[in-house]
Amino acid sequence: MKRGLVMLFGIALATTGAHAEQEKRHARGLVVPANANYGVPFLSWSETGELPDVIDLREAGHVSPVKNQRSCGSCWAFAGTAVMESALLRNGGEAPNLSEQELVSCDDDSYGCRGGWQPFDYMKNHGIGLEDDFPYAARDLSCKRINPVAKALRWGNIGQANKTATVDEVRKAVSDFGALWVSVAADSSWDNPTPVNTRCSNSQPNHAVTIVGYEKNDSGKFNFIVKNSWGTDWNGDGFIKSQLGCDSLGRHVSFVVPADGVCAPPEFGLRKELILKGGGELKAPGLEDAGMTYDVYKVGQPIPIGKPRRIGPRDGGDYVFRTHNACGNWEMMVKVKTF
Q: What's this model's pTM, rounded to 2 decimal places?
């Protein structure tokens, strides 16, 4: 997480009374870096022909539950995990509950609860782990590396950088990739919203949300279905519908493609027999090379061996190496010889 001075939109607004309390509950947190990376451009939108008038990823079961960022300016992280969770569901897998706190605490391209940018470079370089392994605290914590259960293969921008994407571009991207990370200018009207957003401004984007579909309205225009990160009480269910450009929705829009095989049981070369002449340190080189954490237990002992996991020349026997991935818990029995 970056340190130092940064100008944020929408974190510290001058508010009083009831609106101040509402603003505290509904934190924003988008920070657009001067040298922002937009990933690879999405150029194939004109190649498809006819698109359906309605796509609702919720009806397809491709949207994970609405979460609540609370008073931390971590919308950028919640929108990122929402897009990745949706992409995993769309690929036919079960979406793990991904850790926003890992992004808040460990993504060096952003500023934690003071705001951030699209987290997909982090997901591409490091992957992202489970909420259970690094629970959300709605505050800045020290980085803790946890087992990655999902990873971005590639990601990119829809339309031209810093220009609102066209309706057809975003519709095509929803059709091709599913949920999209998107910026919006969430002004005070977002604290008391309506089911369809019509109170539009042209302010600078200060918030990140997720597009999870679209539908043609009675006037023949398209409303996009937006998933927020302010809890299910917000606007009745945590969602709102809005046209592109309204409140600058669509100034920054991105997709992500998850890497294949993130749910495959790991095969990291753990041997069933480990020889440590005269004792030594119990290590699983494959797991460490992959950046995964693990615990080592002596069979019959309920408490894992503390680090460094050194054993003496008389401590041979059966040990269990335990880790987990998106598919669940995983372990291997290892016989250690110390002669």
A: 0.74
